[in-house]
Structures are given as structure tokens and as C-alpha cells.
Specification:
With 107 residues, the protein is of the alpha+beta class. The protein is 52% helix and 21% strand. It contains five helices and four strands.
């Protein structure tokens, strides 16, 4: 599996596929935040896969956190970057992103 890590375009496709099937976007509505705080999360029980994906995302310039079985990207700038670089294709995720932008971002 290490061979995929060397090809960044293939890695983006692998990450996109994982996110489209096993990922989610959640919005932390803690009152400390002025707006819901986006968290992009991919969950996998396979530690080796989690670490490889996290390392690949770090090399792409993402701020990655690992939390138990999760890989997480937190914040609005990370969410924008995610949708620009990884470009998820799952309609559910795309709609969540578009709705967040419509409700929380000034035009």
C-alpha cells in the first residue's frame, strides 16, 4: 500500500473515496464559537491506514489531528481547502458544505 503514498493524485482519489464512504462533516455548536465550527472526520479501525492518510494529508498542507479511530481536520479554512483539493463527490457532504457556506459566510 505504500506505493500509493508516492503518487499524490492517486492518494487524493483514495482519500476522497474513504471520505465519501466513511467520512462525515460535523458542526460543533459550542457557544464559544460565533458560528458552528466545522470538523471533517474520517473513521477507520486500521491504525496503519489512519496514519498513512494523516501523513499524506499533512504533506498536502492540511492541519491533521488523530483522535482514536479518527482523522480530523478542524475549522473553516481547513474545510474550504478540503473541498478544493480533495473535492468530495458524495452529494450528502457537498450539500452540507454548500448549506454551511450559504448560512454562515457573507457574500
Amino acid at each position: 500500500h505504500e506505493m500509493f503514498l508516492r503518487d499524490s493524485e492517486k492518494m487524493k482519489l483514495i482519500i476522497r473515496g474513504l471520505f465519501d464512504t466513511d467520512g462525515t462533516i460535523v458542526f460543533d455548536k459550542d457557544p464559544r464559537y460565533k458560528k458552528p465550527y466545522p470538523i471533517i472526520r474520517i473513521t477507520t479501525i486500521h491504525e496503519g491506514l489512519r496514519d498513512q492518510i494523516a501523513d499524506a494529508l499533512s504533506k498536502m498542507g492540511f492541519r491533521v489531528t488523530r483522535h482514536y479511530k479518527n482523522i480530523q481536520l478542524k475549522g473553516i479554512s481547513q474545510m474550504h481547502k478540503w473541498f478544493s483539493i480533495i473535492n468530495p463527490q458524495n452529494e450528502k457532504h457537498r450539500l452540507k458544505y454548500q448549506n454551511y457556506i450559504a448560512k454562515n459566510m457573507p457574500e
